[in-house]
Specification:
alpha+beta; three-stranded antiparallel sheet; transmembrane helix; 98 residues; membrane; transmembrane; 1 helix
C-alpha cells in the first residue's frame, strides 16, 4: 500500500508537530507536578546556572531546578543563601546571607 497517495508531506509535518507538542506539554506537566511535591527549607550548598539563567540548587544533598518555580529572577541565588519552598506551592523564597 502506497501512503503517498493518501497523505501529503504537509499533513505528515502537521501530525509530527502535533505529536511533539503533546509530548512537550505532558513533560511540562510532570515537571510542574514534581516541583509541587518538593519541600525545601535550608541553606544552599551548591548552585549552578545553566541555559536561560535557570539555576540548579542543592540543599541538604537534594538538587532541584528553578525552572518551574516562581521567584524574583533578579535575585541571584548564591551559596549560603537560605531557600524556602513549601510542598504544594511553586513559590521559592530566597533569604540572602548577610
Amino acid at each position: 500500500m502506497d501512503f503517498k497517495k493518501y497523505i501529503s508531506k504537509k499533513e505528515i509535518a502537521i501530525i509530527v508537530i502535533l505529536i511533539l507538542l503533546f509530548i512537550l506539554l505532558k513533560e511540562r506537566k510532570q515537571v510542574k507536578k514534581d516541583a509541587l511535591s518538593l519541600s525545601i527549607h535550608g541553606i544552599v550548598d551548591k548552585v549552578k546556572y545553566g541555559q536561560k539563567n535557570i539555576a540548579t540548587v542543592t540543599v541538604h544533598k537534594i538538587s532541584f531546578s528553578t525552572y518551574s518555580l516562581i521567584y524574583n529572577k533578579r535575585i541571584h541565588i548564591s551559596v549560603g543563601d537560605t531557600v524556602i519552598k513549601d510542598r504544594g506551592s511553586l513559590y521559592l523564597k530566597i533569604l540572602k546571607k548577610k
